[in-house]
Amino acid sequence: MAPDSRLMALLGDWTGTEELFPTAWTEAGTARGALSVEPGPAGVLLDYVEARDGAEGAPLVAHAVVAGEGFWWFDTYGFTPQAPGSAEWVDEALVLDRRSDRGRTVMRLRADGDRLTVELDSAVPADAAPAPLMRGVYTRQAAQG
Q1: C-alpha pair distances (Å), 95 with each of 33, 63, 92
Q2: Beta-strand runs (E) in 21-124
Q3: Going by C-beta distance under 8 Å and a sequence separation of 6 or more, which residues neighbour residue 44?
Q4: For residue 145, what pLDDT is reported?
Q5: Using one digit for the tens of pLDDT, what is the confidence trace for 21-50?
Q6: Which of 67, 101, 112, 141 lies at a CB distance of 3.0 to 4.6 Å from 13, suitable for a disulfide?
Q7: pTM for this entry
Q8: Smallest Cα–Cα separation from 104: which of 124, 86, 118?
Q9: Among 54-58, 99-103, 138-142, which stretch is predicted with the lowest mean pLDDT?
Q10: Rounded to whole angstroms, how far apart are CA atoms 46 and 99?
Q11: What angle (nearest 5°) sits at the alpha carbon of residue 111, between those of residues 35 and 58?
């Protein structure tokens, strides 16, 4: 079976800017983000770093696994997934949806050539209407070596 061309379009190293929306815990702002998307077993592996502009301290660092219709997210906030989230294609966007006792997060990734857009929404509680959390636009970086 040939690899999914939509997943293949996400592969690479990406850097860009992010608009952060206010939450009960954080103020609105901007950040710099970097993503690395590599092939994984039956899907992709995603590494992510977000450094909030003007903030002191460690950035948010995350690792995600997308395999088939499953999705797992681990980050430096320290919340371990209780169960896998879902991964599905809606139009040309990979939609990653995860739920926990803390709420719901929906991430949409859409590649268009050397441009990647990411939309992240959250809902607290999980059955509430999702609200924007982050919007990012990234550019594929040239391969090193």
Answers
A1: 19, 16, 9
A2: 29-40, 43-52, 60-67, 70-75, 85-90, 93-100, 103-112, 115-123
A3: 7, 10, 11, 37, 38, 66
A4: 63
A5: 998 778 899 999 999 999 998 899 999 999
A6: 141
A7: 0.91
A8: 124
A9: 54-58
A10: 19
A11: 20
The two structure tokens encoding residue 100 = 């926990």
Closest C-alpha among 75, 78, 73 to residue 107 = 73
| Cα gap 70→104, rounded to integer Å | 15
Strand partners for 56: none
Residue 103 to residue 124: CA distance in whole angstroms: 5
User: Looking at residues 84-111, what average pLDDT do you find?
Assistant: 94
SS3 6: helix
